[in-house]
Amino acid sequence: MVEGWPWPHRCDATKYKRLHATVRFRDSDVAVTSYPKTGTTWVEQIVLLLLHGADAKLDPASRNTYNARRNPLGCVWLEPMVASARRARMSLNQFHDLPAPRVLKSHAPFDAFLGTRGSSDNASLANLRRTGLKVIYVARNPKDAAVSMYHHARDEFGFDGGLDAFLAMYLDGDVEFGSWRVLSNSRTQSSLSPSAA
Q1: Of 27, 48, 71, 134, which one has the greatest count of Cβ atoms within 10 A?
Q2: Distance (Å, rounded) from C-alpha 62 to C-alpha 185?
Q3: What is the pTM of this model?
């Protein structure tokens, strides 16, 4: 659990908190944020193509992820890439040194996106408004997302129960990243107003 949310990818709570206290956003940054299995990779591909055209190296199998050698224009998923307990692929300084535009990804609830929940640090929600960070929130019918997450749980995590058992867990929030209902409600209540965006 990190900031009250179940995080996979071996995210370390101490590194996560330090990341949130020190991350600096730019007005050229674009963040794609969503509940898992709602179309995040598709939207990342669209954003990367719009920003980089033919230079975008798209690889849905790797979630279009940034790689210094193979995909320097890829998407940066800060929580597992920088705040991972075992497999951090990038230091905070390396992240800050990336050229613009940076494409970011998160499955955090919006009010916890990179430490914005109740934060008075530089990564507060007010700072997101001031920096000009562009946030694209991806939504999908939760029934479709549940079926997609069920197959993901079977393929990636070895879940061996049936769909009914998985749906009970899904509705209770006992799946990776917790309940879609809580996340959707927190995003709705905390979203940037059109006048502030």
Answers
A1: 48
A2: 29
A3: 0.80
